[in-house]
Amino acid sequence: MAKVGKKYAEAAKMYDKYKLYEPAEAIDILKKMDTAKFDETVELAVNLNVDPKYADQQVRGALVLPHGIGKTKTVLVFAQGDKEKEAQEAGADFVGADDLIEKIKGGWLDFDVAIATPNMMGKVGRLGKILGPKGLMPNPKVGTVTMDVAKAVSESKAGKVEYRTDKAGNIHSPIGKKSFDANKLIENLTTLVDTLIKVKPSGAKGQYIKTITVSSTMGPGIHINPFSVKGIVKADEQQ
User: How many angstroms separate the Cα of 141 from the Cα of each of 11, 60, 72, 160, 202?
Assistant: First the structure.
């Protein structure tokens, strides 16, 4: 059995690991846990009843959480001409074309989000082996390949998060910081789950959302009753 730290062990005593909690209960317990000296990120893990190896069961997208995630993202935009100016005025941290591509080829990756206009993707596509594994490759499915670069930049700065199922059908996403007011964390949580319901793949059968777990960076996971998230999941299963 893997050893855990003293704070983690103490935190694990504050809840029943076999119980399914209401969202408000889970967030209340999480906020009371003394697991780190820094302001931890609160993460949500959702296990979906899908098989991502099939195209009609893949779940991927992006959304702007109502209260952000407590972090200002560094945004890079691949654009030229008027779109370059538009990105700069919208608050992008880095804007350019060939110069940025060469810089990235040299190993520079000091940004959190990459956005590109469609006409730049012929060149940006050559960075696939570098940006892809880091989750930084611009993609039209999540709104990072677009002509509306101003909107894309402002949404990224406002706390836009991307979600994508892994091989096991899990989605992991930050929903804020531990210092957030509990109601803000609950609203962010509910917004994410609601979004996942809305993008339910046509190929998904049976109980779509199997488990929901919330945790902080250094803390244990607390299981949430999927049927208690404002009744969203229950309503979905009755459709």
Answer: 38, 7, 22, 14, 17
The strand ranges marked E within 58-201 are 60-64, 75-78, 94-96, 113-116, 160-164, 170-177
Q: How far apart are CA 172 and CA 47, in angstroms?
A: 9
Cβ atoms of 197 and 236 within 8 Å: the answer is yes
Reading the block at residue 21, the tokens are: 């909690």
pLDDT tens digits along 19-48: 999 999 999 999 999 999 999 999 999 999
Beta bridge partners of 114: 76
DSSP string, 51-76: -TTSGGG--EEEEE-TT--S-PPPEE
- Closest to 174 measured CA to CA, from 184, 164, 187, 162: 162
- Token look-up 């993008």 returns 199
**What number of residues does the chain have?**
239
Report yes or no: 15 and 21 within 8 Å, Cβ to Cβ. yes
- pTM surpassing 0.90? no
Residue 175 phi/psi, 5-degree rounding, is: -125, 15
